[in-house]
Design brief:
Blueprint lengths: L10 H6 L26 H6 L9 E7 L6 H8 L5 H12 L2 H6 L2 E4 L4 H7 L3 H13 L20 H8 L11 E2 L5 E2 L8 E9 L3 H13 L3 E9 L1
Parallel strand pairs: 1-6, 2-5, 5-6
Antiparallel strand pairs: 3-4
Helix pairs in contact: 4-7
Length: 230
């Protein structure tokens, strides 16, 4: 944040980050100040996205979005500063409720589009999921195929929801990555509860679509975690 040489995120900047307080946040969608009356997952906003209810059980985030914290995922995925991934994963793990780690059977993630992988040279959410898996102890189950959608950045709320409708398909089960990041041949079917991860939640359109796809596969309960919450 301060560009001080020697580390990607110094101790002082790490201490001053705007951490999201779960006791002030909405207990359902994780909006930063929605504990009493949420501005994000109320019936009016749900209807604007073509939904009558949330497709996931709960959501939390590590940090609140601002001009400074936005630099972290941008540097990681757009400029290839992969040394940020372990730090981001640790902050996300710190934000997880302990009972989620006990009830969830696997960690899955929102995969990047093929165009994004070609442009960046790596799948930023997959590598971030591997780091989070090593910390939270959940094996990775790659349940979602790469979406065929346009970049969400620059789109309005309604455009984001329209863009993400029916873009996620089942990846197929049969392999995953354990806490150490090694491939496993375990079958992940059936899964009653999974933890879904993405880097940033803006309107929720991406997580809503991904969670809906997981529910359509037969997953009974989806919990979500992101690094930033707008």
């Amino acid at each position: 944040m301060c560009d001080h040489p020697g580390t990607v995120l110094c101790t002082r900047c790490l201490r001053l980050l705007p951490y999201l307080d779960p006791w002030r946040a909405c207990p359902r969608c994780g909006a930063a100040f929605g504990r009493v009356q949420c501005t994000e997952c109320n019936p009016v906003m749900m209807a604007a996205g073509g939904l009558s209810e949330l497709p996931f059980a709960s959501c939390t985030s590590a940090l609140m979005f601002d001009a400074s914290t936005a630099r972290i995922p941008r540097a990681y995925k757009d400029h290839g500063v992969k040394a940020l991934a372990p730090i981001m994963a640790q902050l996300m793990d710190d934000a997880l409720m302990p009972e989620w780690k006990e009830s969830c059977q696997a960690l899955t993630f929102v995969p990047a589009t093929k165009a994004a992988v070609r442009r960046r040279g790596f799948d930023h959410t997959q590598e971030l999921a591997q780091e989070l898996s090593a910390r939270c102890g959940l094996p990775i189950a790659p349940l979602l195929a790469r979406p065929r959608s346009t970049d969400q950045r620059g789109l309005s709320r309604s455009e984001r929801f329209a863009n993400m409708r029916r873009v996620f398909q089942e990846q197929g089960r049969g392999s995953g990555r354990g806490p150490a990041g090694k491939m496993q041949e375990d079958s992940f079917a059936p899964l009653q509860e999974v933890l879904l991860m993405d880097d940033v939640m803006t309107t929720g359109a991406t997580l809503f679509a991904a969670a809906s796809a997981l529910r359509a596969q037969g997953v009974e309960r989806v919990r979500c975690v992101t690094f930033l919450r707008v």
